[in-house]
Amino acid sequence: MNNTEGTGREQPYIGGILKFRIPFVHYRFEYQDFIQGAILSCIPLGITSAMVSVLGMPIEVAVLMVVINNFLYLLHTSFGDPSIAGWITAGIPLYITYLVGFEAGPERIKALVALQLLVGIIFLVLGATGIAKYVFEHFPISMRAGILLGAGIASLMRVFNPAQPFMGKMPIAFAISALGSFFILFSARAIHYRAQHSWFAWVAGFGIAPGFVIGYIVGILTGEIPAPKGVFDHFIIQMPFGEMVGTFSAIGVGMPSGAMWVAAISLAIVAYILAFGDIVVLQAMIANCNEVRKDENVVFEIPRNHIITSIRNIAEGIFMPYIGLCGPQWTGGQALVVNRFVNSTPAQEPSFWGGVTCMFWGMGIAMLFHPFVQIILPAKLIGFGLTLLIQGYLCVYIAFAMCTTNVQRGIAGVMGAALISANYVKLWGNAFWSGPTLALIVGFVLFLLLEYGHEDKSV
User: Fold this and answer.
1) Global pTM?
2) Within a domain: residue 322?
């Protein structure tokens, strides 16, 4: 199931394969998603610490790269791909381990260039040839559910692990934010209030923003969250484009050697396998949109998603190699946009494209203003934790809904457990044999053994 179609009409656009939609022409400005995006801008800035320590770049260059990377997400939503795109996040520890094996400085930058360009080439080849479309169209439902279940439980485990900062360092602030956000987003009573009270429908349209703000205030009062500092040091962030391109790009340091290309091949394949799971989650969420909102047909095409993801990786690999790489979806952000859309009437949110695009406009524009970034940054863990919670909730319930037989549920459960458990080890000293690879193998073997060729829906 690649072209996930509802019964409504597709939103108008300009073009062919790349469906260009213009703000205020093809979709209205959704200020509530814009505000959600602005609040969540604190999350992508969290990668700057790794960029500074591993790549040796000044913080100003790292922040500039984050801002540019976020604006490039608009390539997806502006050209017909309904994805809240992001990094290939799960592999970041692997990328760092790979990079520190090279000498700090230009050699390390070249190693990252090789990795990101290879990832871009993989996406381009699989997308342009239709191989990815064929694979996903024939991917078993039980295995899709297994990936969703594993991704969801992994997110929830991270939130409730006492060693993590969410419940460990700010239990009061985070608990209040989480309970408020979950009530607004998922409560049956809240759905009733939306229909009965226009003021509540308006508040609920902001998604996690109300819970985030209340939790932030409580956190400052309890001392769990530090007060913002350096708010008025600058107005607009610094933009050292010359230093970024001259010192930290393929144009400035040169292209990788042959040995570097070879060294990056296996890790590039691992990165794609990690991204494979993100695409499965995205596909399921868009199907959920079309099932609930019959008024609009949101079309998701895997080749288009692959081609745009490849463009981002190749462009960044040349001009600003990015340590998180470019992935096809950010599940937490996608969950927020999807949830608001499916819980809104056509009058409240006429089109999916308004919300999904305004989320990125809000996030990108907010990061240009130094005072806003400094104000929001102390509460970045609340924003991150809320997206993990929402991601976990949606992934788990969609996984359960996808399965129609006990055999499918059983395969999904075992595969999800393999995905989570195997992430704690690296078998045979090779990153390739980590959670995603083993989960796919386990799920495929169980599918062949228990499900393939059997049409009995009673088991």
Assistant:
1) 0.82
2) yes
